[in-house]
Amino acid sequence: MVTVVANKKPPRGLRPRLRRALGRLMEELGVGDKGVTVVLSGDRRLRALKRAWWGEDEATDVLSFPHYEPGDPFIPPHLGDIWISLDTAKRQAEARGASLEEEVLVLAAHGLWHLLGHDHQKEEDWAGFHRVQERILDL
Predict the structure, then answer these.
(1) Which residues participate in Zn(2+) binding (predicted)?
(2) Are 10 and 52 in contact, with CB atoms under 8 Å apart?
């Protein structure tokens, strides 16, 4: 189950498409019986979160907060929270000639991949991120 909370007003129709596409992606990845919360917010809030949790004083596009330790054999019913900055998503969408809705879907897939325990410390780690980000746009 995908819950979408908006601290900043999203474009009309974004919430249902996000719930539907992310839910389908979760099914494909074998975690369709789990829950995820997506929080749509702005740069100010994501900057504060990044500063508090990572010690970096800058805004970012997406942050993931797992509710378990990835790799733990017990996966709880709720995987965690994905925070997305609509401000940054809008700038990124404009830069690549995409819609804000598409950019938010890509960021949600990126955040989900993090919740499932993946990271991108090395260049080869990006392959899984690219796959889920492209796939969510087809759903």
Answers:
(1) 110, 114, 120
(2) no
Tokens of 45: 């809030």
Q: Annotated binding residue at 67?
A: no
Specify the CATH number for the domain of residue 85. Answer: 3.40.390.30
Q: pTM to 2 decimals? A: 0.89
Q: Is 120 annotated as a binding residue?
A: yes
Q: How far apart are CA 3 and CA 116, in angstroms?
A: 17
Structural domain boundaries, residue 123: 2-136
Instruction: Let me know how long the chain is.
Output: 139
Query: Tens of pLDDT along 4-28?
Result: 999 888 989 999 999 999 999 999 9
Count CB neighbours of 50 within 10 A: 18
